[in-house]
Amino acid sequence: MSSETRPDISRGAKHLVDNFPCLSTVPDGCVLSREALSEPVAFGSVPVIDVGGLEDPTRRVRTVEEIARACEEWGFFVAINHGVDSPLMEMMLQLVAKFFELPFEEKMIYSSSDEACPVLYGSNLSSDKGMHARHWRDYLRHFGRPFNNNTCELWPTNPSEYREVTKTYLEEVWKLAMKLAGAISEGLGLDSNYMERVFGEGSQIVACNYYPKCPQPDLTLGVSAHTDRGGITILMENDVEGLQVRYRGKWVPVPHVAGSYLVNIGDCVEIMSNGKFKSVEHRAVVNKRRERIAVAIGNGPGYDVIVKPISELISKASKGPSHEPILFKDIRFKEYTTAEMKE
């Protein structure tokens, strides 16, 4: 292939696919290792939970038990009847899609060599740094709450509604996260407000991911295997599935459920639960047919919170023969968040 027609990956995955519509192979240097791609895939069933049961006194106990079981066994569950309005979810997805449709030069306003920048646009395809280097994904990432120090004023201004809708959306997602935190607290035998008190003012990281269709999806990934550093991740996607969860050593695809959220436990909750609830590896795969758009909100404690095993759980675990008293060291959440952003 001549230099004139050789695909240019420097502008990211979407630009590559849009400008080379006849692209039939993954560009040289973007094929992942056989070790990363050859792990077995199995069919299973990530739990689907009607979290509306948390609002019904006659169903709350059973719903809490379902959430606790999912957190302990899977680290993931699909949440339906979650209380966030469908029109708001759809508007958020549409605005994210519009952002990625902007001219490359306009998106590059938010590009930076500082991976911990408060607002960051980039592409893993054109990057040779980090655990997701050369992966088939473009992204927009920025902070959410706490909404101070002009946080929202750093967000994109195009689409024009992005700031207003995103702030409203994040507020609704936080309410859902705290409702789930209450169920998780109860599932650990604590009072329902325990984790919300620990989280304090809280924090959010917004990860908007764009996975273009790929000519050879079996040779690459959208995002490689990883766990989330935060507390409770709440993800929505367009109607294209692509997430896989590691379960008993194999990758289990998560089917798309219209109007649902995919919820997973992050490292912070695993630490706080002293290992009872699991932060599980997951990854994103790509396909030949359609682009996938996913918006993940990482909901965590305030940045100055010291994340550590909950003392009440340590005292309980130490009385039993099957648990180590303390499985994790204390860490300030800001340090953990900075490490994730750089990855």
UniProtKB/TrEMBL annotation:
<dbReference type="Pfam" id="PF14226">
    <property type="entry name" value="DIOX_N"/>
</dbReference>
<dbReference type="InterPro" id="IPR044861">
    <property type="entry name" value="IPNS-like_FE2OG_OXY"/>
</dbReference>
<keyword id="KW-0408">Iron</keyword>
<dbReference type="Pfam" id="PF03171">
    <property type="entry name" value="2OG-FeII_Oxy"/>
</dbReference>
<dbReference type="InterPro" id="IPR005123">
    <property type="entry name" value="Oxoglu/Fe-dep_dioxygenase_dom"/>
</dbReference>
<keyword id="KW-0560">Oxidoreductase</keyword>
<dbReference type="InterPro" id="IPR050295">
    <property type="entry name" value="Plant_2OG-oxidoreductases"/>
</dbReference>
<feature type="domain" description="Fe2OG dioxygenase">
    <location>
        <begin position="202"/>
        <end position="301"/>
    </location>
</feature>
<protein>
    <recommendedName>
        <fullName>Fe2OG dioxygenase domain-containing protein</fullName>
    </recommendedName>
</protein>
<keyword id="KW-0479">Metal-binding</keyword>
<dbReference type="InterPro" id="IPR026992">
    <property type="entry name" value="DIOX_N"/>
</dbReference>
<dbReference type="InterPro" id="IPR027443">
    <property type="entry name" value="IPNS-like_sf"/>
</dbReference>
<dbReference type="GO" id="GO:0016491">
    <property type="term" value="F:oxidoreductase activity"/>
</dbReference>
<dbReference type="GO" id="GO:0046872">
    <property type="term" value="F:metal ion binding"/>
</dbReference>
<comment type="similarity">
    <text>Belongs to the iron/ascorbate-dependent oxidoreductase family.</text>
</comment>
